[in-house]
Amino acid sequence: MQLLLIHSDYIEYEVKKSTPVAEKIEESFKQGRLEEALTAFMAVESFDEADPQQVVERAVAEIEKVAVQVKAESVMVYPYAHLSSDLSSPKVAVSVLKSIEKELSGKYNVMRAPFGWYKAFSISCKGHPLSELSRTIRPEESATCGEAVVVEEKKDEVVSEALKAESTAKSYWRILTPDGELHEAEGFDFTGYDNLKKFVDYEITKNRNIDKAPPHVELMRRLEIADYEPGSDSGNMRFYPKGRLMKSLIENFVLDESAKIGAMEVETPLMYDMNHPTLKKYLDRFPARQYSIESDKRHMFLRFAACFGQFLMNHDMTISYRHLPLKMIELTRYSFRKEQRGELVGLRRLRAFTMPDMHTLCPDMEGSVSQFGEQYSMCIDTLNKIGIDVSDFEVAIRFTRDFYEGNKDFITDLARKVDKPVLVEMWDTRFFYFVLKFEFNFVDATAKASALSTVQIDVENAERYDINYTDSNGEMQHPVVLHCCPSGAIERCIYALLEKAAMDTEAGKVPNFPVWLSPTQVRVIPIAERHMGFANEVADALQCRVDIDDREETVGKKIRDAGREWVPYVAVIGDSEVESGNVNVTIRAESEPKKPKKVEMTAEELNERVLSEIGDMPYRSLPLAKLLSMRPKFL
RNA sequence: GCCGUCGUGGCUUAGUGGUAUAGCGGCUGAUUCGUAAUCAGCAGGCCGGGGGUUCAAGUCCCCCCGACGGCUCCA
């Protein structure tokens, strides 16, 4: 059943003409009017025929719930077929409508508009936030026929209670400086903190005047990293070999870093039962929209993080206080969030994305706060090594007033660690499952902010999922849970690197990737065919991702192409190199536009230099042909 | 999801009612070349999809899809 509830000053109707399915009615029924009424427009659907009684009960419950909220004493039951494209038989519909009328009539002043008639009506909607609501009601266990798996959007289920709650949440915005002072965000002197200013504007005033597409969209395609996939849903990207390589390197890096602090890597399912009682409640506390899937008789949703899987695993584990803090991580490929259409842009915001999701079980609040501090530092370090410096992101710290009162010094320390002012958002009451969180927000070339790393202290889910550990007295306790995404979404890291490079270009610098992430680390350019032998020797002497531009092109063309690909080291080989045994290397990181930095060195020196720049960072071999002449173009 | 703009060969793009432009890329040939585009030729398009108006539609109208911008929203 589709329900549309409108709280109205009045509703009135008058029948005009009967349709073939019209119910027979008396003269007095042909027009009606109710003042101060909750009008329930409804369409009974084919699904409802499976269990009409249950649909009646649930519809009545929904109507009553809203009637109580808006303090309505009158209810207009109004059949409205246009709410659905899959209607029930008229017979069932009339009986459902009559039952609803009957159920409500004891408690409310109820009127029902006749079924199956064209009616003129006028309604005056009150327009307050609760005055217009829609609901979808389906009998439990309703099976759809046709295909085995049908992906469908259910409007009512994608708006979680947390999303609704947020619209009413009262936020207090402050700027916290490293000296521990809380300043009003309005009127703060942002001199020297341009990006913080942009971030604060983005968060608070929501003032955005941008007329251009973010530059990374063109770059991600030109550099053959990622692209839109028209054959999928929006926000589901394809990644070409270079993009997959970069993702893979960052993924491995984050996993390595979390292994170093003792996180256990696990893998959990991508889809879950919508009607699982624990999950249902969690869905309502998480501010995100889901993809949903009909699979046989079950209604599934795609995960938007690894929380479910890990919490369900934690629930079944036997855990002692000796095991705490206990860390688990999953690199989710993918997490799915059905973001609104207009929010999707390039790699900044996706509907399917790769996110490292780590959870830490801590014995108590004190333990969780200390872990929070450690993970805060770890996140700074992680982004830094990926190539996103403290100066590239802005910190937001969000907490409840209670938490702040008890932990002022700790919060100040967070600002001190980054040694710059940070944005603070404080709530009087806790709307979400956490009492404290931070995010590192990247501010891009179009002054838009998006979150990378985040850690949250969760005080709800251990209980909800019934996760327990045994304390030193042998008593069962619920741990405090930390959520941590050390790097942010991997795609978003690439977005940040591309945007950062675009800003460098804008500032008159040569754009770069960190060497460990560059798909090609060294390009060897032989001038003529006779230099291929030595070119191969040089390439063989290098223990990194090296390729050879053996195409029949001029040197100028090959240099230009290497530059457009942001290759960090370009070694040109001609007669004099063959003779000297050295190579002539253009070092991109030390070059300026139109002023390439060229150094003559041996292949061994070049190799050492590249290896030292890769350092401890992950390495994978080149996923493309070594010879450029053997490479297809992806676009 | 709502409002607006846009959608032409693999890519970028000209074309506002009358036989569909060009560059890049690809292929063929010539060139074997010293640091940001060597020259010539060839192939490749039912102009996002569907419907309508018209003698005639890439061009005008309607619906849908997608991208971008805004609103909204955001881990």
Automatic annotation (TrEMBL):
Note on cofactor: Binds 1 zinc ion per subunit.
Cell compartment(s), UniProt: Cytoplasm
Listed GO CC annotations: cytoplasm
Pfam families xref list: HGTP_anticodon (PF03129), tRNA-synt_2b (PF00587), tRNA-Thr_ED (PF08915)
Chief place of localization: cytoplasm
Xref: HAMAP family: Thr_tRNA_synth (MF_00184)
Family: Belongs to the class-II aminoacyl-tRNA synthetase family. Archaea-specific ThrRS editing domain subfamily.
Name the UniProt record assigns to this protein: Threonine--tRNA ligase
The species this protein was found in: Methanococcoides vulcani
